[in-house]
Amino acid sequence: MQVGKPILYSYFRSSCSWRVRIALALKNIDYETVAINLTKDGGQQFSGEFQALNPMKQVPALKIDGITIGQSLAIIEYLEETRPTPRLLPWDPKKRAQVRMVSDLIASGIQPLQNLSVLKQVGQENQLTWAQQAITSGFNALEQILQSTAGRYCVGDEVSMADLCLAPQVANADRVKKSHEINSGPHTWGTERNQIVSSNQ
Amino acid sequence: SPQPILYSYFRSSCSWRVRIALALKNIDYETVAINLTKDGGQQFSGEFQALNPMKQVPALKIDGITIGQSLAIIEYLEETRPTPRLLPWDPKKRAQVRMVSDLIASGIQPLQNLSVLKQVGQENQLTWAQQAITSGFNALEQILQSTAGRYCVGDEVSPSELCFPPIYGNTNKFKVDLTPYPTISRINKSLLALEAFHVSHPCRQPDTPPELRA
Q1: Residue B10 scores a pLDDT above 80
Q2: Three-class SS string for chain B?
Q3: Which residue of A146, B26, B132, B168 pairs with A150 in a disulfide if CB–CB is 3.0 to 4.6 A?
Q4: Mean pLDDT for chain A?
Q5: What is the nearest CA distance from B211 to chain A, expressed in angstroms?
Q6: What's the CA gap between B107 and B101, in Å, rounded?
Q7: pLDDT per residue over B39-50, tens digit each?
Q8: Rounded CA gap, B214 and B199, in Å?
């Protein structure tokens, strides 16, 4: 039995947090937000307090039903199993496999390769190319897969976990594109870097 | 229905996860080897790309469909061939299993796989891979303090265990110091003693080169 409202540890710009926010909204689940700013104070995800809650030092994390879950797709699958209405996964196991495949393509194959902490590692001058490569490589595959799975949405005509991953990733791609366009005139690498870093949290 | 076909590379950690699942569930299958380094990488062939646009292994052709992404494959096997169980009954334990699996499958493996290491450049590869693994293992070791029994989550083998030996196996290649990870090491050792992890090991695959064969 649930004790108190669920608490979502989230950053407004984090695409992984957004996935979970969509799921909570779709399932009409009221929750509290604790904001974890990934850039302030050296990154609030690195505080001792947050690390004790989520050793992965990442958002999102969801405190619900007496446990704390990290990893957005693990959270979404838990919500699906414990609050099954409305559905986020189809009934048919083959369609479920396609939903999970598309979700994982984004959540393992694209997002981790262009998130804040990776971009910090690749170095300022490489960030734009790196982010573009991660996204276009993944989107090339995704576009091809969707030719056989998509209806109105990623898999058929109902919103599923795959769509929860898609929208935030497309938003990320948009920000990467915009930051490149904004700086397509005379520019400093510093400005572009700040925009890429801030747009990929 | 015809035997499933697994597109696999002997050394691919993601392929190994699926091989373990197929072994645990006693599912007979055919292997089509996709060599990630020969011929510029056989995953880039037009033929394979048509089958799996992600140009990655593993892919499993089963029941008239082809599924990519190892965890999506494993969840499909669990839902259609539920015996023996890989996921616990309790939704909270299922969440923990998926959290650990995703920590490895999204948080560690993609950051140190072949195609990323090619991009970071030869001189940076070791440091990069070490960073990816130690960063993930630091978190994992801490999480296991509250979830682990004999294995990652309690005492039964689950998808999180399937992700384990494959990533652990890379620690040798990348010279990762394992001293800070006694729980991870203990669990890995227990798993490698199990038959399914043994038969699916990279050193015992149809495409394992003779010099690496057990």
Answers
A1: yes
A2: CCCCEEEECCCCHHHHHHHHHHHHCCCCCEEEECCCCHHHCHHHCHHHHHHCCCCCCCEEEECCEEEECHHHHHHHHHHHCCCCCCCCCCHHHHHHHHHHHHHHHHHCHHHHCHHHHHHHCHHHHHHHHHHHHHHHHHHHHHHHHHHECCCCCECCCCHHHHHHHHHHHHHHHCCCCCCCCHHHHHHHHHHHCCHHHHHCCHHHCCCCCHHHCC
A3: A146
A4: 89
A5: 32
A6: 9
A7: 999 999 999 999
A8: 11
The rounded distance, in Å, linking the Cα atoms of B171 and B109 is 12
Please answer yes or no on whether A107 and B109 come within 8 Å at the CB atom.
no
Show residues of chain A in contact with B55, CB under 8 Å: 141
The first and second tokens of residue A125, run together, are 């001058």
Nearest to B54 among A69, A74, A109 (CB): A109
* Beta strands at B30-33 and B5-8: parallel, antiparallel or unpaired: parallel
Q: Does B124 contact A at CB distance below 8 Å? A: no
Which residues of chain A neighbour B119 with C-beta distances below 8 Å? 130, 133
**CB distance from A98 to chain B under 8 Å?**
yes
Nearest-CB residue to A141 (from B53, B72, B110): B53
Chain A contact for B175 (CB, 8 A cutoff): no
Distance CA A200, CA A169 (A): 10
C-alpha dist (Å) from residue A41 to A37, A38, A46, A47, B147:
8, 8, 9, 9, 31
Strands A32-35 and A7-10: parallel
Give the one of A57, A113, A145 whose C-beta lies nearest to B139's C-beta. A57
Q: Provide the pLDDT for residue A176.
A: 84
Judge whether A136 is closer than 8 Å to chain B, CB to CB. Answer: no
Residue B113 CA to residue B118 CA, distance in Å, equals: 9
Q: What is the pTM of this model?
A: 0.93
**Average pLDDT, integer, range B40-65:** 96
**Whole-angstrom Cα distance, residue B148 to residue B183?**
8
> Token pair of B130, please?
């070490």
